[in-house]
Every structure is written in structure tokens, then in C-alpha cells.
Amino acid sequence: MIQFLLNRELRSEQALDPNTTVLQYLREHRGKTGTKEGCASGDCGACTVVVGELVGERLRYRTLNSCLTFVSALHGKQLISVEDLKEQGRLHSVQQAMVDCHGSQCGFCTPGFVMSLFALQKNAGAVNEYDPHQTHEALAGNLCRCTGYRPILEAAEQACCGKQPDQFDAREAETIAQLKAIAPREMAELSDGQKRCLSPLTVAELAEVYTANPDARLVAGGTDLALEVTQFHRELPLMIHVGQIAEMKQVQVSERHIEIGAAAPLTDCYAALAAEYPDFGELLQRFASLQIRNQGTLGGNIGNASPIGDSPPLLIALGAEVVLRKGASSRTLPLEDYFIDYKVTARQPGEFIEKVLVPRAESDRLFRAYKVSKRLDDDISAVCGAFDLKMSDGVIAEARVAFGGMAAIPKRAAACEAVLKGATWDLATVEQACEALANDFTPLTDFRASREYRLLVAQNLLRKCLLEQHSPKTETRVTAYV
After folding, report:
1. What NCBIfam families would the database entry show (predicted)?
2. Which end of the chain is more exposed for a tag (fewer CB within 10 A), N or C?
């Protein structure tokens, strides 16, 4: 059985299909049809809801895409939909701001925008504080087909600058008490009699249950796995949800590594990675939308073995490792050895990614990362390149170069690295290394880019890496094309 708050109402669910998404649950099981389905793939934001959960003694509110979230993820949390904002016949201040600023046209996307604005207002630092960058980040995952962004941004400014205590603030102590009362204390199970979802609370429990059920599908954020249900209409007979395992949600900085639990949301990884590697931070801000980053995990981005995943090229270039666990045994593997072929990895049956180890930054190393995509925000890369160079008096002592979108797996450029290692860091060396890239990769042509384009972009990114070091940075290094 799972338990959660539907706004203020305690819900206990046991006999429910675990393939049910939060969007389906709201609309079909609870009659809350304010939340809309636009794309069923996490791209449009029409289905945005807000989830409240306890972090220490405080409530934290985050947006997520209800179309990609299975109901099991709500266990021990509070779900807030657009219907819950109005209180005693009065619109919430973010809803009133949308009315005052004429932020709604056809209205289909409006509930999603309202919920993103609600979370933005809740997370604003102080009364009358408005941050344009934070607002753009909060709304980047919400699409308006009527092109009404200017009034929506004006509504965001009004909502943040006119922030006043609301009913959620007034009931904060009550909500915290309710969430403490339903905090998970043992492994939960959700089942309709045929399909099941288990939610272990510890790494040891996960290891035991996954060893016993190696064919189960692991789900953390679910932003990729849920597409099998929403887009391909498949049924997942057995899932193991790892989002309740506190050990796997930690991000810790040790003397040598940034240790990132495989179930830590990307939003929680940002501060540690950006502090060590600013380019990694810039890329994470363009990793899908805020709704996806609030839910998706670094472990999942590695585990799905996509050749165009944003993080693997950067992690490979940095020499990151993954800790794999099976039963009581664990092993540490260089990430570059984890990927074997398209969607094929070194992970054994019953084995799972427990955490990711990212080396700390070193002062004598130059790290650059670039994402090239058709849109600046909320898009998958056509090419993603990362360069980690150890420099000594203008000579490249060590070189690690990795790309995504250039092969069936994220992969190092061995021939390019061989040219760079031991050479002077100058244009002549870079041009030789660019030629070597043609020996490293034979990219494919698809709807995102042609093979010729991909190879030329990869070469140009290496040239860009050199030019940036010798000229002031005038724009973001994480690049887009149109």
C-alpha cells in the first residue's frame, strides 16, 4: 500500500495498476480534469503538477510532469494540482496574476503554467523578489502554442513581487505533521493483482529484491521508462521504485570525488557539479526542463544507455566511475567501460548502479563541454562534446575527449587524443586532431543531423575549445543551432 496527500486529503492506494501515471490518476480516478495531457512525453508542460515533500523539518515544493510520473512515486508526499490553488472562492495570487496580465489565450496550457508559477513563487527567496533568469528556467518546460509568453512573464513578475502568505503557508505545520505520519517505514507494494511495483527503503533491500527479480524494471524518476507506457502502450509487469532509498539520493563531496547516488534528482546534483565544473553546470541547466530535472536522475541518464544522453560524454571525459551492486557484492567500473554497444551495457542481471563517482577538479586541467541542439532549451543534443586536458607549460600532458551523438554509444575519441597528448596546445595541433576525429567516428544521419554535419560540428567544437581559452568568454559555451 502507498499513502500520500492529495492536497489535504489522505489517500491510501493498494489495488491500483502501478502503470497508472499521476495524470491518469488525477483525471480518471479522482475527476480532477484541470491537469491536461498535451504530449504524454514530458515536452509541453501542460500536465505540470507540484509535489511537496519533507526535507528535514521543512516543506519543499517542486514541479514535475504528471504524464511521466507513476503513482508509486507519490508515496509519503503531497500532490497539488491546479484545482487545489483556489481557496474559498478566491483565486490564488498566481492565478489572479494570469488573469490581470492576460496570460491565458486558448487556455489549454494555462494550468501547467499556473503550477510552474506556483512553484516559482513558493521557492522565491523573499517577498517582492523577482529573478528573470530563475523565471525563464522555471517556465522553459511549459510551451504556449498561442505564443503568449510576454503576458505570462508579466504574470510571473506580479506573482513574485506581490507574494503574500497563502493557504499552504497557513497549513504548513499541519501538512508537515501529516507527512511525518505517513513517512514510509517499510517496503511498500502497489499491485492490481497482475502488475506490481515494489518500493524498497534501503540499498540492501533493493539488492535482495532485485536479485530475486532480475527481470524487473528499475524506476527512479521514470522520465524515460514511462515513455514505454505513454508512447508505446506497453505494460510493465514488475517495477522496483528506487526513489525512496535515501542512501541513493545523496550527493556528497569527498577529498577525491563527488559521490552522486544513482537516484539523486538532477536538480540536486547541480550545485556540486557546477561548483567544480562550470561547463557541467551550464549543460545541466539545458538538460530537458526543470520538471524533468526535478525528477530525472544521473543514474537513469547513464542506465538507459542512450547514445545521445547529455551527461555521459562529460562524465567519460572526466574519468567518472560507476559503482555497481549485486546482492552483497559491489564493483567499481570506469564509465567508458560501462557502455558496450547500442543499448547494451556491462551491467549483469540483478546488478544496478548504486552511485557515480566524479573526480574533483584539478587546477592544471582544462575542462570544456558543449551541447549542440536545434533548440536552446528542452531539446536532445545532436552532438555533445567534452574535453578534459591536463596542461603543463602550454603542452598537453593528458587528453580525454568524449562525444555523444557520434556513435552507437557515448565514446572517447582515441585517435584525436593520441594527436593531442604531448603536443603543444595550438591551432596546428588542433587541426591535426580534427582530422583524426574522422578516424574515431562514422556518425549516422537521422532527422536531427546528417553525418557530415555531425563530424564538422565535432571538429568545430575542438577548435572552439582552443579559441575560448585564448579569448574572453562572450557567450555561453553550451551552444545551440537552428
Report:
1. xanthine_xdhA (TIGR02963)
2. C
How high is the pLDDT of residue 416? 98
Instruction: Yes or no: say if 309 and 320 are a contact pair by the CB < 8 Å rule.
Output: no
Q: How many CB atoms lie within 10 A of CB 186?
A: 9
Q: Which residue has the cell 510520473?
A: 69
Residue 21: which of 85, 80, 66 has the closest Cα?
A: 66
Q: How far does Cα 477 stand from its chain's mean position?
A: 20
Instruction: Please tell me whether residue 264 adopts helix, strand or coil conformation.
Output: coil
CA atoms of 3 and 11, how far apart (whole Å):
6
Angle between helix 110-123 and 132-139 (nearest 10): 140
In Å, how far are 3, 74, 179, 412 from 9, measured between CA atoms?
A: 10, 13, 11, 52
Grouping H, G, I as helix, E, B as strand and the rest as coil, residue 390 is: strand
Ranges in the chain, pLDDT < 50 = 474-476, 478, 480-482
- The Cα-based distances of 446 to 384, 449, 451 in angstroms read 16, 6, 8
For the full predicted model, state whether its pTM sits above 0.90.
yes
Cβ–Cβ < 8 Å for 402, 381? no
Give the C-alpha distances (Å, rounded to integers) separating 170 from 119, 166, 173.
16, 6, 8
For residues 114 and 131, what is the distance between their CA atoms, to the nearest angstrom? Answer: 17
Task: Give the cell for residue 320.
Answer: 567518472
CA distance 104 to 478: 32
SS3 240: strand
Residues 258, 249 contacting (CB under 8 angstroms): no
